[in-house]
Amino acid sequence: MKRAFSSLMRGLVVLAMLWSAAASATETARTYTLSNGMTLLVQPDRRAPTVVHMLWVRVGSMDEVDGTSGVAHVLEHMMFKGTPSLAPGEFSRRVAALGGRENAFTSRDATAYHQQVPARHLEAVMRLEADRFENNRWSDDEFRREIEVVKEERRQRTEESPRARMFEAFGAMALQAHPYRRPVVGWMSDLVAMTPQDVRDFHRRWYVPGNAAVVVAGDVEPDAVHALAESIYGRIPARALPERKPREEPPQSGQRRMEYRAATEQAMLAMAWPMPRLKDPGARDDESRDALALIVLSALLDGYSGARLDRALVQGAAGTRLADSAGAGYGALGRGPAQFTLTAVPAAGVAVAEVEKALRAELGRIARDGVSEAELQRVKTQWSAGEIYKLDSVYNQAQELGTWWVHGLGPGSAARLMEALRGVTAEQVRSVAQRLFPDERLSVAVLVPDPSQRSTPARTGPRPALGRH
């Protein structure tokens, strides 16, 4: 054990050296505020003549209201459908002609648009992105065609997947007041009822300079990018950002359980507890310390091949193992409430109740016996390695900067998080396992195989193409 621990400590020293080397390959990110209130984040990385350009808007599904769920994601689609100077689809064709690639995504917290092009074409993609941010225009007919694509996306990714439908219902049960309870893609009834004006109003309301950030990572000079961004994005007129009213989830005071019956071959179990979220990796308050310990706890349970859940439930000969898969997750960052989740797919012939008991036992074992220093250092090493190797990707650098900005944090947050996680102790991990998983705050969902449940009705005619966006 001493030899293994010594080896792990040497590994941490090597990783620290790798972190320093990776950090020196990329300069410190710079933050600017444009004259209209838009944020600019620039991360130089001169290892290749390429650049990633991202536009982040701090608006996602949590900013929707009942009756228009999915509108943030629909707007993401419509942002590719034209401006007064660009025909529908022309944005993507021009990026491709520059030798680039592009896409976009919507989450509960944000919407982001990104392109990667040769560094000499940065100005061109900036002008394209600024144009559609300010001047997104399309016809009602264009909307009617694209909303069918979004409906088809929902059918393929949610309605035709029993597990996806279960998790959607689980989210709506585990949270009762906070808008995180709604699916990002939206409820089908809301998509059916959505109008072109719903989408235009959402764009007008939230796509304002003070609610957006431009992120540039790659072979660039920060001050030159600042001047370029000021001339292109800075001329967009500033507008007031709508007031965001607090929508807090009330405390949970009793266990919640549901069965979701579907025509599927395997059962599935999902468990969730509300948890404190990580507001700042450098903070020293009790909530932040608990959040850091929960990140480590999640990694101990499911952070590497052969972690605790895998060993206890999945490994073993057929007929003796409890689950085909088991996992743990903790959404530390978010504009809304955080949860710690455990999931498992029972092996053939194993009851869901037995798997739930086994998952609880693994939490209980850490709460009772704690973890060894060797195991603790192993997961820290694994996490540190992932963070270091992530820096090899210019896109990942831009993604990280944008993610921190969405949550009100600056470019140095990743380094602060790494440093803070190195300081998490075995006793802190044991403490959160003891205190933060009471039964009265638990929500449980079980996917129950039921052949009598009909699948999605058969359809006639061709499916709309989903595309990339």
UniProtKB/TrEMBL annotation:
Keywords: Hydrolase, Protease, Signal. It comes from the Bacteria. PROSITE patterns: INSULINASE. Residues 45-185 form the Peptidase M16 N-terminal domain. Residues 241-258 have a biased composition (Basic and acidic residues). Its EC number is 3.4.24.55. Residues 239-258, 448-469 are annotated as: Disordered. Belongs to the peptidase M16 family. This is Protease 3. The lineage of its organism: Bacteria, Pseudomonadati, Pseudomonadota, Betaproteobacteria, Burkholderiales.
